[in-house]
């Protein structure tokens, strides 16, 4: 039986949000001791949603009091 994934199966591979990656002095280091190429492709990539940084919220629209008058 195939393991069910709760996330999109087409996630871009990045060591920054891999289960095996950890941050050290601003760089991502692999806990498995893998030497990664520049494009960061690894067959041991395992997505960790808690490491992913959400996109910034868009600025709120400014309203004036005339917008709320009937």
Q: What order do the strands of the largest sheet run in, or round the barrel if closed?
A: 1-2
**Which structural category fits the helices and strands?**
little secondary structure
Specify the helix fraction band: under 10%
User: What's the β-strand tally?
Assistant: 2
Give the uncertain stretches in residue-range form. Answer: none
Sketch the topology as an H/E string, one letter per element. EE
Task: Assign an overall shape.
Answer: elongated
Mean pLDDT: 77
Strand content: 5-15%
Number of helices: 0
Distance between the termini: 60 Å
Radius of gyration: 20 Å
The largest sheet, given as strand count, sense and whether it forms a barrel, is: 2 strands, antiparallel
């Amino acid at each position: 039986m195939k393991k069910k994934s709760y996330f999109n199966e087409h996630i871009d591979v990045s060591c920054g949000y891999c289960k095996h990656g950890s941050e050290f002095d601003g760089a991502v280091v692999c806990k498995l001791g893998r030497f990664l190429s520049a494009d960061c492709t690894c067959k041991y990539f395992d997505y960790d949603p808690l490491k992913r940084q959400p996109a910034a919220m868009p600025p709120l629209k400014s309203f004036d009091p005339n917008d709320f008058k009937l």
